[in-house]
Design brief:
Largest sheet: 5 strands, antiparallel
Order of helices and strands: HEHHEEEEH
Structural class: alpha+beta
Number of helices: 4
CATH class of one domain: Alpha Beta
Shape: elongated
Length: 173
């Protein structure tokens, strides 16, 4: 069906308006005030303080303690661990970080990615506190204390060893 010449112009404008509305739907809906969008985080959180703790010669176990398990574990490259982090906060641009760690004989030999380790070794301050616990009185069990307070008769919990018939005066023969 061919459109009449007088119908072509309004049809063109209508299709242009429809296409513009469809294209702008995502940007209009994403920027409406009062609409909450969930910030989506994916991968391992990677921070500069974590990278600063890495040193050449660290074992894979030490790296696991600092960085966590790698995001990608390539079967063909067992000596390479890849960590990736992506965050898309609502109304902001996507944040992406990537780092690859290289191992030789289960020790770290190289780092490649968005972060660089510092030249000075960083010692992470401990956030743990020490609590002094008073000594416990271990002479009586809880049951002995409770039964003693209740006025119950104290029974000897440990049976006495049986005497050997051949013993005399406490000395074995």
């Amino acid at each position: 069906m061919l459109l009449q010449p007088q119908m072509r112009k309004p049809f063109f404008y209508l299709s242009l308006l429809t296409s513009l509305l469809l294209i702008s739907c995502s940007s209009v809906l994403n920027n409406l005030p009062g609409v909450y969008t969930i910030p989506i985080q994916q991968g391992n959180i990677i921070e500069q303080s974590m990278i600063d703790q890495l040193r050449p010669g660290m074992t894979k176990r030490q790296v696991l303690y600092i960085m966590g398990s790698p995001m990608l574990d390539d079967v063909l490259h067992k000596n390479r661990w890849d960590y990736m982090y992506s965050n898309h906060p609502s109304g902001e641009d996507r944040i992406q970080h990537q780092i690859s760690l290289f191992f030789d004989n289960d020790q770290i030999v190289g780092i490649q990615g968005d972060f660089r380790p510092s030249a000075v070794p960083v010692i992470k301050a401990s956030e743990e506190t020490t609590v002094d616990v008073p000594k416990r009185d271990l002479e009586k069990t809880l049951w002995e204390i409770i039964s003693g307070a209740a006025g119950a008769e104290k029974t000897d919990a440990k049976p006495k060893p049986a005497k050997n018939e051949l013993e005399t005066d406490g000395l074995p023969l």
